[in-house]
Amino acid sequence: MTAANTPSRAIVLPAPPPLLGRRGWALCIVALLAICALAPALNLLLPEGHALHLSDYLIGILGKFMCYAIVALAIDLIWGYTGILSLGHGLFFALGGYVMGMHLMREAAGPGALPAFMGFLDWKALPWHWALSDSFVATVLLVFLLPGAVAGLFGYFAFRSRIKGVYFSIITQALTYAAMLLFFRNETGFGGNNGFTGFATVLGHSLHTRAMHVLLFVLSGLALLGCFLFSRWLIRSKYGRVLQAIRDAESRTMFCGYDPLPYKLSVWVISAMMCGLAGALYVPQVGIINPSEMSVGNSIEMAVWTAVGGRASLVGPIIGAFAVNGGKSWLTVAAPEYWLYVLGALFIVVTLFMPGGLIRLPGQIREWSARRRAQAGTSPALQGAQA
What we know:
This protein is mainly alpha-helical. Among the domains are: about 25-55, no CATH class; about 60-115 and about 130-295, no CATH class. Helices cover about 70% and strands about 0% of the residues. The chain has 14 helices and four strands. The strands form two sheets. It has a two-stranded antiparallel ribbon.
């Protein structure tokens, strides 16, 4: 039989893996019920003296932690799965917060009035970049579009120039620092070093009621769960496998016919948009946004959340964000002068002794124990052979 008459054999590709297993879906449902039903019931239905009552303080701080977890998840997409270490994600987080803050300032001022800080500066009209701040729909769109546009413009030139590694980390720091200095200036129309504060309402509803605090908590939880499922779907797709190939061997990926630029740029933009969403949910809960959110220290701390939890795991960064910020909340009250030392030591310990982070620590301990048992078992045999 000639080659021309040989019947062609169809190539059967493996079926895509499921998004989550039974255990994963069960945990998601439990988390959903805890966020949407259990926590609100413990806060709103039980009296304050009850042993199971969830205080307003805990509702607020857990809502903040969930916003931080979204940022850690966004950093994991680009660092854990693409190999791009960014030390400037505080900028995208703050941009989302500033967009939401501008809308809240317009609501607090009332129709046709200027925000309070503009009256102190003797401004007569709104700057051009405040034009859409009175529309909630436009604000929601800009929460995603503004960080995405800034990331896309910066990332296009950086990735096209093949900048990576420590050089990319340095220029992301420089970008964040330059933006922070810009927002500190009063003439830019962003409130100077005080930023935005004094928020009163959103969509006509007071921000200072218990029901609104619970609603923001629920929205933060749903956003975190949605970002996790989206990231999981993204990573388990063909797109995600190409990202991991770029992380492990970019030159070989290019040899196989893939252009890394659109993959790196798109995941960079997606990561920035997730940070913008986190910032927009964060601002109404804390009641303030100022340029210090863009500081280089904050961006480095965000990378620490991901490293402590465990890169390239999705669940790990969420655990890391809760663990690090929980420790920070306690330590900044008990001994605030030691927090920066503890943060630096934590990053060193994780890098040297826990490279897989908290999520892989049990497996690391089991592996270490098995190795010790194997060494203990072989030692008597070696001694007998030598005798």
